[in-house]
Structures are given as structure tokens and as C-alpha cells.
Amino acid sequence: MSNPARHSPFRDGFDAVRHGPVLFAAELTWRWCFGFAAWGLAVISGLLFLDSLKISSADEFLLSTLQPQLLQGAFRHILRGSLNRFLSEQAVLLLGLTLLWAFAATAGRAATLRCLVAMFSTEEELPELRWEFKPIFALNLLRAIWTQIAIAAAVVSLVAGSVMENHQRAAAAALLLSFGIGLAAVFGGILNWFFGLAPLFCVRNGASAPEALTQCADFSSRQAGRLFGLGIAFAMLRLVWAGTMFLAFFAPLRLAHHIARGWIALLMVGVSLVYFAGADLLYLARLGAYVSLAEDDSQPASTVEDVRLPEPLPSLGTTLATGTGLPNVSG
Fold first, then answer.
1. Cα separation of 152 and 149, whole Å?
2. 2-52: per-residue pLDDT in tens?
3. How many Cβ atoms are within 10 Å of 300's Cβ, its own excluded?
4. What is the domain count for the chain?
5. Is residue 264 in a domain?
6. What residues make up the domain containing 171?
7. Mapped to the 3 state alphabet, what secondary structure does 87-139 carry?
8. What is the DSSP string of 220-258?
9. In a domain? residue 201
10. What is the pLDDT of residues 205-226, one digit of tens each?
11. 225-232: average pLDDT
12. Is residue 140 part of a domain?
């Protein structure tokens, strides 16, 4: 993959996926293993909480009426004294899933980046690349925590804005709903992008977590235009892919009169898995494009042909002293 006449980083990203299918397999492995484990733990936690609830015969009668007010009273009685336990269980589950994701992302991302850096390196003798688990784990953990903070800020802004709207405070509600959610989304997305790209510099340059963030910021400032173009291109591909799979997701519903509901659900699950696989492939291609661009950025002089400058003319004093280079004027 190291070619002086290199194509665009956009094409290099897809070339990396095509020439290294094991990268795509590794990406799917760590992502889907974590996804299935997270869903399994969430379902088990919910079932254990529901199993711990005590429902009296009066609550069963109120639930059977399907009246909104009676249902509200029944749920309030059932959940009395259990809400704190439920929140504590979910907090422990969230902490465990955060650590599990950080470990899985560290192992998967380190392996993927090692292969991509070796693939795009232009050096004849590539130095030994270390795994750099510790700084990558720190970056992934910070990424997960910051994402949760941004989501929490957006939810708090949404709830507070709704409360302000109910109290007829339109200005405060608009401020919270627009600026609160907007700023949480913008800052959350920007820092999530930096934390996601910084592991590249840990593997490539052996940098620590703070050094990787600094190098990532410098790289982004130098290549802002090309990075923006890559982001737009991959975002458009992701949007087209999502729209296509959205239509395919509901297509099996047209077969409701011909096949059983279980088969329809199975087809919809299959379409969902295909969508996630395609999204992971696009993310891997974008990561390959960033690695290609980082390699170009580290060797800006390699893309410019060397220009041989003319040798400087000898000075007049040197010429007179040596007696060379003077025209023959005798005779």
C-alpha cells in the first residue's frame, strides 16, 4: 500500500478494507461481541428486576382494567421502594459496560491500527509497533465518560426545557431546548471524534494519552480541509446506507399475509445485522483514510520532487586569486 503516486485517502480507506479482509472480520468480532454481551446483560438485569417485584391481587385487578389513572396507581404501588434499587442496579450495569467497552475497544482498535499503520507506511524498514494498551485504554475510557456526560446534559436540558414550557416560561424553555441540547451535541461530537482518532498516534508514534491528543489536535489543524472533506464524504455514504437499509427493514412487512410473524421478525433482524455490518465497514474505511492522510502529513516533502539548484557562481575575488575562469584577452 505504500505507493509514492498515492490515490486520495478516501480511496485508500476502501483499498485497505479490500486488501485486508481480516481487518473487517476483526472489527466485526470485537464490536459484535461487545454488543451481544451488552444486550444480554441489560436483558438479564431487567428480568431480574421484574422478578423481584411483588404484585398483589389488587394490583393485578387494576392492571386488568387498562384505565390510565388506575394503571398509574398500580405502577406506583408496585414500584414503591424498588426505584432506588433499580437505579443502583443500572448504575452498576452502566459502570460495568463502560469498562467492558473500554477493554474491548482497546484490544480491537490496537490490532486494527497496527495493521493499517503497517499497510500505509512508506518506510522501507518499519519500526516495531507496540500495542500501547495503557494510553489507548485511557483514551477510550475518557471517550465513553465524555459521551455519557454529553447525553446526560442533553437529557437534563430536554427535561428542564419541558418543565419551563409547562410553567409558561417560553424564553427559558427555548434557551434550554436549543442551546443546551445543541451545545451538548456539538461538544460531545467534537471531543468524541478527537478521542476516537487519538489512538492512531499512540500506535504510530508511541505517544502517551496527553501527547496523542496534542498530536491529534495539531494534525487536525494542518489537515482541516481534507479531514472535513473526508467527514462529509463518509457521512453521505452512511446516510445513503442508512436510508437504504431503513426501506429494507420494513420491506418484510409486506409479506405479513404470506409468511408467519416469526419469519418476518427474523428477516427484520437479519436486515438490522446487515446494516450494522455495513456501518462498521464504513467506519473501518474512514479509519484507513485517516491513517493514509496521517502518513502523507508526516512526510510532506516526499510528495514534492527535488529541485536541483544551480551551483553558485564563484566570487570575483576568488576568480582573480586563482586566475581561473577569466577570458583570454592577450594579443
1. 5
2. 444 446 889 998 998 888 888 898 889 989 999 999 999 999 988 888 777
3. 9
4. 1
5. no
6. 130-218
7. HHHHHHHHHHHHHHHHHHHHHHHHHHHHHHHHHHCCCCCCCCCCCCHHHHHHH
8. HHHTHHHHHHHHHHHHHHHHHHHHHHHHHHHGGGGGTTT
9. yes
10. 888 999 999 999 999 999 899 9
11. 92
12. yes
